[in-house]
Amino acid sequence: MAEIQQSDHNDGGKNKQKKQHLRVDFTPMVDMNMLLITFFMFCTTLLKPQTMNINMPMKDENLTEEEKTKIKESGAVTLLLGANDELYYYLGIPKDQSTYDDSTYLVTSSYGVDGIRKVLLEKNTGTYEKIQELKAQLKEGTIVDSVFRTKSKEIQDAAKEYAPTVMIKPTELSTYKNMVDALDEMLITNIGAYAIIDLTEGDRFFLYQRTGNKEYLSEAGRAELEQK
Hints:
By secondary structure, the protein is α/β, with parallel strands linked by helices. The chain is 45% helix and 16% strand.
């Protein structure tokens, strides 16, 4: 609300121009701002965090240690995040020195459809399709989020004997974006079990052997290399 105040003082009978003072009342704007805030709060969809279920190791007492190891090796996929957006992977678990001497054991890949995503989809066949069906039902509104999470966990639990377990290992030369891209691939391919862990000396040797970059080696690894 605006008000105009006029001054009618007349000194000595002389006519002077009247002074007008304008005052604007902004009090109603406070109520309007609160209404707008409330409107946008109700009309905005809040971002829901997306999580992944992690399959824990099997506790079947009837399985021997050798059988448990085979199950872990068959589903193990290790990603090594290198410099300049480079990505490498190997399948299984290295057993001895002959594995590290094998130059074909570490495979060069990339982020995206034709790279590591293709590998993970092949390893996660069956589980991927079932969860994609659940995602479609969730998008259509035929199931709610809680049902989606419960059924997804049931599917991943049923497939834990053959579904891949992905180990993501960033290097000192990789970037935060590389980590985000790797985690995106886990979400896209519906990987149920994954972990971010540190590099081993063997992983560092793999990278050095493939790239020739000594910066991948640890201080102990560089010292050992210089002694040879």
